[in-house]
Design goal:
Elements lengths: L4 E5 L4 H12 L4 E5 L2 H6 L5 E5 L5 H15 L2 E6 L14 H29 L2 E6 L12 H21 L4 E8 L13 H13 L6 H12 L9 E4 L7
């Protein structure tokens, strides 16, 4: 019997793409969501439905999930990985940047949860994995709006876990430190980007996307009766 369907948002690069490759190698059919359809299709994974969806578009998310479940059966897990990191000092940052972070990192997360939660509760089985950040547990200079969005991810995850634990649905938060992905490239403040790159070098290197993917799979593959509520991981040399 083929393993069940898993949904991954933000799957066109970084952690999402690495997780898609890993879970596909273990036989899971996948629904991959991202705005860049060509990047999803370039992964060339079997038993995979790729859809160009902006996670902030609730109707599009619901439609894609319904299509995938019709083709592959009920979603056993969703990995809410889509996110943007637009660093900047609040005295200088364009409000459009923090609005975008709240739209994607918070509203997008809720849209992903909404798309699968009722079915999981009805079946009394399922796993919701929310990819947050160490910046959802502690603050960093120039991260005000980003930290706010990631603290929200942690709060949503824990409150949701309490709400659905009695329905045998797991909620897991993955909080990585610095990871080598495209995330930093979204930041428009060049000085902050340079400082961040220097910080990465000083710690002697950061996590690879594949490190986080392996952590996600570890948490997911535990028996349904075991909920690893939160995993915080970072490069050994990362002090903050």
């Amino acid at each position: 019997m083929r393993p069940p369907l898993i949904i991954i948002s933000g799957a066109s690069s970084g952690i999402g793409a690495a997780t898609a490759r890993l879970l596909s190698s273990h036989g899971h059919p996948l629904l991959l969501l991202a705005r860049r359809l060509d990047r999803l299709q370039a992964l060339q994974l079997p038993h995979t439905l790729c859809r160009a969806v902006d996670i902030t578009d609730r109707a599009a998310v619901l439609q894609a999930v319904a299509e995938a479940e019709q083709q592959f059966g009920p979603a056993d897990a969703i990995i809410n990985n889509a996110g943007v990191m637009l660093l900047g000092k609040m005295t200088q940052q364009d409000p459009a940047e923090w609005e975008r972070m709240l739209e994607v990192n918070v509203k997008g997360l809720l849209n992903g949860i909404h798309a699968v939660l009722q079915g999981m509760v009805a079946r009394r089985h399922g796993t919701i994995i929310n990819v947050s950040s160490i910046a959802g547990r502690k603050t960093f200079p120039g991260h005000v709006a980003y930290c706010g969005s990631k603290f929200a991810v942690h709060a949503i995850s824990e409150n949701l876990r309490e709400e659905v634990a009695g329905h045998n649905v797991r909620v897991i938060t993955i909080a990585p430190g610095a990871v080598e992905t495209e995330l930093l490239s979204h930041t428009s403040d060049e000085a902050i980007k340079q400082d961040y790159q220097q910080w990465k070098q000083e710690m002697g290197g950061v996590l690879a996307a594949e490190d986080v993917a392996e952590t996600i799979r570890f948490a997911y593959q535990q028996p349904q009766r075991v909920a690893i509520r939160e995993i915080v991981l970072a490069a050994t040399g990362q002090q903050a």
